[in-house]
Design brief:
globular; 0% strand; mainly alpha
Length: 225
């Protein structure tokens, strides 16, 4: 049942994303519009990196596996990933990307519904482009993460990794050093350096836990709250 739901969500999300892309392309009428769209997509890729880091940190450090639906389908896989980092490379396309497709159905549908038949001005075009960029970057965060763990990703992906547009394996390997408390971002990894340097995630955890410390059950094993 879950797999069928994920497969349907992938098809629906792809259709909605294509509709949004057609709306954006159809709204281009000048060089300035193209630059606006490119800027929105770049900022969306940056924002997706931040969101992926926040979600990854929350799933690793704070969330409960007992949460309805989210626990077994989102939280547990994140923690089991530390025990077998290569397991993600054995997941097929549906298993890798289905859950995030489900998460993006409502935002994509709402964006298309609110946009109407025509994009309203520069702000509207920027907004549509930003949502499209977030859907692509954030919606395929698990796929990007999977490529970072593969010994031989597709050649086009390798080129994007070398250009630092997608997360690469060498960078992401820093996260898989116990106690798994750094380099949480899994789309481009652009924000890992400043977030780790400024101690953003440890500070957030300290604040949310009211100053109470927490340690893994055993070094290198699942982080249970």
């Amino acid at each position: 049942m879950q797999r069928s739901l994920e497969a349907l969500a992938l098809v629906a999300a792809a259709a909605l994303g294509l509709g949004l892309a057609v709306r954006v392309v159809g709204s281009l009428s000048a060089v300035g519009d193209a630059l606006l769209v490119a800027t929105a997509l770049l900022l969306a890729h940056l924002a997706a990196d931040l969101v992926s880091g926040l979600v990854h940190w929350w799933a690793d450090r704070l969330a409960s596996e007992r949460l309805p639906y989210l626990g077994p389908h989102f939280i547990r896989p994140f923690r089991e990933h530390h025990e077998d980092p290569q397991a993600i490379t054995r997941h097929d396309f549906i298993e890798t990307n289905g859950n995030l497709a489900i998460a993006w159905l409502l935002p994509l549908a709402a964006t298309l519904g609110l946009a109407g038949e025509q994009t309203q001005g520069a702000l509207g075009l920027f907004g549509l482009s930003f949502v499209l960029g977030m859907a692509c970057s954030s919606g395929f965060a698990n796929q990007i993460h999977k490529w970072a763990h593969m010994e031989r990703p597709p050649s086009a992906v390798c080129a994007l990794q070398r250009a630092r547009l997608l997360l690469d394996g060498r960078h992401h390997a820093r996260h898989h050093v116990p106690p798994f408390d750094r380099c949480y971002c899994i789309t481009s990894g652009w924000l890992d350096a400043p977030l780790d340097r400024w101690g953003v995630f440890p500070a957030l955890e300290h604040w949310l836990r009211g100053g109470r410390a927490r340690a893994p059950e055993r070094a290198g094993e699942r982080l249970a709250p």
